[in-house]
Amino acid sequence: MSKRVASLTITALAMTMGGAAFAQAPSVPAAIPFDIPYGASISLDAAKAVATAAEAEAKRRGWKDTIVVVGPAGEPVLIEKMDGTMLGASKVAEGKAVTAANFRRPTKAFQDLLEGGHSIPLALGVTPAEGGFPLIEAGRVIGAIGVSGGDGSQDTIVAQAGVAGLR
Q1: Pfam families attached here (predicted)?
Q2: In terms of Cα–Cα distance, which of 48, 46, 29, 40 is closest to 73?
């Protein structure tokens, strides 16, 4: 094969492969994901209702958790540490709550990104572990709940019970 034919073949392959890569580029969403407006901070009474519902679920299952409820800016409103909860759970629960409030999405979204090979959660300084959820009232983020003490799926169950306690 002549150098010219080889060069044309390589060029054609590169263009084909480049076109395939371009065709497979991810789509760009039309709207910003999780674009929920912020509202006034959750009241202490509402935070107590959230924590009470979460604690009831943890007790029903025999789990020991720390439950943190924060306002929309991530400021702590209520921290409840059940007897026997592991010592590190408080910081993790607070990190989950702050992450869910600041980014207006469940913390599992960041865990999924990491597990998918994306490193962006590390640069954002989030707590990329399931068990954190924004608290939404009248279409606005009024805070978030973070739960830690069990494995992620257990924390999620307890946190979701807390979210349901807001209603």
Answers
A1: HbpS-like (PF03928)
A2: 40
For residue 9, give Cα distances in angstroms to 18, 19, 95, 136: 14, 15, 55, 58
**Minimal CA–CA distance to 132: which of 167, 101, 86?**
101
3-state secondary structure of 140: strand
**pTM for the model:** 0.82
Q: Which CATH superfamily is domain 44-165 in?
A: Haem-degrading domain (3.30.450.150)
Give percent of the chain with pLDDT exceeding 90. 80
The number of angstroms, rounded, from the C-alpha of 159 to the middle of its chain's C-alpha atoms is: 12
The full set of domain ranges for the chain reads 44-165
Beta-bridge partner residues of 67: 80, 147
